[in-house]
Amino acid sequence: MYEEFFGLREKPFSLLPDPSFILATKKHRMAMALLEYTLMNGAPFCVITGEIGTGKTTLVQHLLEHMEGVFTAGVITNTHASIGELLQWVLMAFSLDYRNKSKTEMYQALIEFLEHQHQSQRRTLLIVDEAQNLDTQTLEELRMLSNINVGQRQILQMILVGQPQLRDLLKDPSLEQFAQRIALCYHLEPLSWDETHEYVKHRLEVAGATEPIFTAEAILEIHRHSGGVPRLINILCDLSLLYAYVEESPKVTDHYVNEAIRMESNSGLLPLKMTPSVTSETKE
């Protein structure tokens, strides 16, 4: 709606994960490097945690794009406590037929798939999103699947992605053997003020902006109320652009950001934050 007015090719602040918009902050570069290193060294499990909206899914998608020629990846997204037969979900993640198969037959189908990938010189990676929703029994079943190997080679590797509760879940005494197989546990923190500023600037430039659109004061307000959470930043930036567009302002000032914040606060649905005011002397 506002793209042409601001000289943009596309919406810069979509809520859909898009690796092409990812900003390689120090935190994300570190997470990427650690993930790539541990996976290439055959780690059975990696764990990525972060608050809602901190970019966990985007990070994993970026990793998959970066390592597309190395890994055959499957993703389980609809996780919940009553997930049912885990092997069905694993087979579905790799587009394998599970219908009318017994548990033994499903297990054998998975073994054959993994061995074929291994013979084709490809690694196999299973990603389990929202893993904090799984119960201890399902996690233990995942650990048992990690026992599948050829000689000394781990032929099924897994990344568990979830909210901070996942780390608490993995501390359960019944999951001690599982925890000992985790080679990497990385927690994605929200963006700092400087990172928020770079994040907004970067996404606008990727979308086609040739000059700054948001004032520094506007970004300060966005950081204060989003707490540096990328998803909340996107929502506030998108609405602020809309308010500025309606009033035909070529710049998004803190006035339009506060209008967006007021609207979202009135709905009571968005978990906006109220961090202390940030100045050039106090920003990190």
Please provide a brief summary of the model.
The protein is an alpha/beta fold and 284 residues long. It contains eleven helices and seven strands. The two termini are 34 Å apart.
Describe it.
- Helix 3 runs parallel beside helix 4 (103-119), helix 9 (216-226) packs across helix 10 and helix 10 (230-246) packs across helix 11.
- The longest helix has 17 residues, at 103-119.
- It is elongated, with a radius of gyration of 22 Å.
- The model is unreliable at 278-282 (pLDDT under 50).
- The chain has helices at 26-40, 56-66, 86-93, 103-119, 136-145, 165-169, 176-179, 193-206, 216-226, 230-246, 254-267, and strands spanning 45-50, 71-76, 123-128, 149-150, 153-154, 157-162, 182-188.
- It has a 5-stranded parallel β-sheet, sandwiched between helices. A two-stranded antiparallel sheet has the order 4-5.
- It is of the alpha/beta class and 284 residues long.
- It has 2 domains: 26-188, P-loop containing nucleotide triphosphate hydrolases (Rossmann fold); 191-267, Helicase, Ruva Protein, domain 3, CATH 1.10.8.60.
Observed structural traits:
284 residues; Rossmann fold; Helicase, Ruva Protein, domain 3; two-stranded antiparallel sheet; 2 domains; single chain; disordered C terminus; five-stranded parallel sheet; alpha/beta; 11 helices
